Amino acid sequence: MPATPAWPPQSTPRLFTDQPIVHGAIRIDGPQAHYLIAVMRLKLGDPVKLFDGASGEWLATAASIGKRDLTLEVSEQLRPREAVPDLWLCAAPLKKGRIDWLMEKACELGVDRVVPVVTRRTVVDRLNLDRLRAHMIEAAEQCGRTAVPKLDEPVKLAVLLRDWPSERALFFADENGGLPAFEAMRAQPGPAAILIGPEGGFDDDERAAIRALPGAIGISLGPRILRADTAAAAAISLWMAAAGDWQAQD
Questions:
Q1: Cβ 222 vs Cβ 177: under 8 Å
Q2: Are residues 144 and 110 in the same domain?
Q3: Is there a single domain that holds both residue 74 and residue 96?
Q4: Which of 53, 144, 156, 189 would suit a FRET pair with 11, their CA atoms being 20 to 30 Å apart?
């Protein structure tokens, strides 16, 4: 007797929506509708996985399809919202392309919040936050996340340090040397953030101000000089392995 096919199938498209998801009908239009209708060739009765960043992942089916919009009928919750590791990425803005890549990887690796930090050597003075959030949403759709990282307005380094919450450790990549990153992160569980400077690094005054913060811990990311985006991805990965959700679960 043939096995019953899995439902929904692995090929089911997965979509983020800003609308709160509830049982019943939900209308999809704009680029998302174009993606489902023109790219995925969705037919009546076909399944779609939906998530809104707050209520988990839901199963819906196509109830009506127009030229530029469609209606999905939400039937059941597939998964609750994920437990998000309490990690922030605080990073100096990078040039377009590199920062787009970094937003994708920050989402895929599981961060909860991204804070663009303006330093003296930051070369990018304007950010398209809508574009960056779109990159994170696309990454969340692809990697199976049910939560999209929060994206803050850019903040100056001095303001970030002034308002820093005392209960949160701040691991900063110090090109002048620091503790081995994995060991430092494993020894300091709990709410944390990773601070990555611009391509030119922090200047001496900035480094002194960071080190003066009680919760700041300088870390080393190995013997090679890393680009800022590479350093951020490496540091996030190390934290996830040392103190985040890459650890073995009981």
A1: no
A2: yes
A3: no
A4: 53
pLDDT in tens, 199-214: 889 999 999 999 999 9
Residues 6+ apart with CB under 8 A from 115: 88, 89, 90, 91, 152, 155, 160, 193
Helix axes 98-109, 129-143, angle to 10 degrees: 40
Helix or strand run (H / E) with residue 140: helix 129-143
Handedness of CA 16, 19, 21, 23 (dihedral sign): negative
In this model, does residue 15 exceed pLDDT 70? yes
| Domain extent at residue 238 | 87-242
Q: Which two tokens stand for residue 95?
A: 């040039």
